[in-house]
């Protein structure tokens, strides 16, 4: 069975939903969006606090890394979304864009002209519908809801005070002219509900006759004929199907899925593909290389009373919170859990912050992070913003159903370990400030036995984990080895673009979802010729 469209989009995540919306603004343009996951009907998706249920389970691909040689050979759980809306449907909803110098680096040092901050800022603004901030740095009427938390937890406010006591300034806007400092994060929510790209971009246009959205579709191959992408093969409900793209195939399957699909299609390192019995369509050695991710390290504290979100694990409090949300769309259910934030310096001479902190108003929230004996705790996570370590994505076999080999190569560069350890030390100092004194019972994890530099380094290696920000595996650049050019076109194959976080030349200094949405917005203009 063959179906014909102008554009076939592979992946209904943060960028794919944006493209589906923007390209179908032209009623003559026929678009097919294929998503491997299912509908976003799970109620936890739409309740901001539901993030706590999302870091493992059926809405993810169930990935783990290969043993990490610089992190005590651990296989680390690697949550990536498998649901319409992608990461924007399961992430912690933190809205940060990165530092302007990140995009200037792309444009001036990493071969991506057209992607400087001045040039991408209009796309951030086009997406943003902020309920509080406006002016030069913000827009109020874009499709993506961005909001202040309706009912910030008391402990998040205490965290911000503790950061100020440590020496960080209060920052009213992490996405404004200055990134450094502390505050409660703005979130991608609207009216007390998660605003994923499925909600913001896809839901309003599902009625367009020129848009077809198919879920539970596993794309197995990009069809390339005479050097041009002609469509894709996919499986839906046990049936093999083909979708033909008259103009372009647009790959938006993320930093793991996009290089996997490219290699399954014969586009990648020739030697590795041949060893798996895959016919080589294009020898592209860097497909799957340059994987970069934030390596987060957690501290967990036990409280001396029911001051955190953990108290809502008890049935009577859970019922109370549910009623408050249903009746007034307020209360703890509107919390994204990861409420408090900070950007700061491990290297005081750095031109911009090199550390980011996430303060969670609970313990044991994410997969692999311990809870506390008393049932009421807090978690403070930190990571190196611009790690130097680089990893890879490789195929395990030629079977599309097989999970890929994910190797972030965490802490391979000694500077990453050094900066990460400073983040842990600063985290501990913040939690020991006077603001927390009357609430914190003890440091539960790692505990007071971690004292020396060697102790901190061992702790970082043993307990760090992904922060869900993989990028770079189909690197954009102007050199011959770059996978895509600055227009996101795959080098050596006509009619094929990669329009997601895998195209980032390097990791930005913040959460990555807003930047991935920006890429989708800019990609739409590149495709339509509106540059």
Give a structural overview.
The protein has 531 residues and is an alpha/beta fold. Helices cover 25% and strands 23% of the residues. The chain contains 13 helices and 25 strands. The strands form 7 sheets. Strands 1, 2, 10, 11, 12, 13 and 25 form a 7-stranded mixed sheet that branches. Strands 7, 17, 18, 19, 20, 23 and 24 form a 7-stranded antiparallel sheet that branches. α5 crosses α13 and α11 (414-431) packs across α12. The protein is globular. The mean pLDDT is 96.
Topology:
Elements: E1 2-10, H1 16-23, E2 31-34, H2 43-46, E3 63-64, E4 77-78, H3 87-90, H4 100-109, H5 117-127, E5 128-130, E6 144-146, H6 154-166, E7 181-184, E8 189-190, E9 193-194, H7 197-202, E10 211-214, E11 217-225, E12 228-236, E13 239-251, H8 254-264, E14 267-268, H9 270-275, E15 282-283, E16 289-291, E17 295-303, H10 315-328, E18 338-344, E19 355-360, E20 377-384, E21 391-394, E22 405-407, H11 414-431, E23 440-445, H12 453-463, E24 465-466, E25 496-498, H13 513-528
Parallel strand pairs: 1-2, 1-13, 2-10, 5-6, 13-25, 14-15
Antiparallel strand pairs: 3-4, 7-18, 8-9, 11-12, 12-13, 16-21, 17-20, 17-23, 17-24, 18-19, 19-20, 21-22
Helical residue percent?
A: 10-25%
The shape, in one word, is: globular
Instruction: Please give the number of β-strands.
Output: 25
Radius of gyration: 22 Å
State the assembly state of the protein chains.
single chain
N-to-C span: 36 Å
Mean pLDDT: 96
Separate helix tally: 13
- Sheet bearing the most strands, described? 7 strands, mixed
Which strand-content bin applies to the residues?
15-25%
Structural class: alpha/beta
Which runs of at least 5 residues are low in confidence (pLDDT < 50)?
A: none
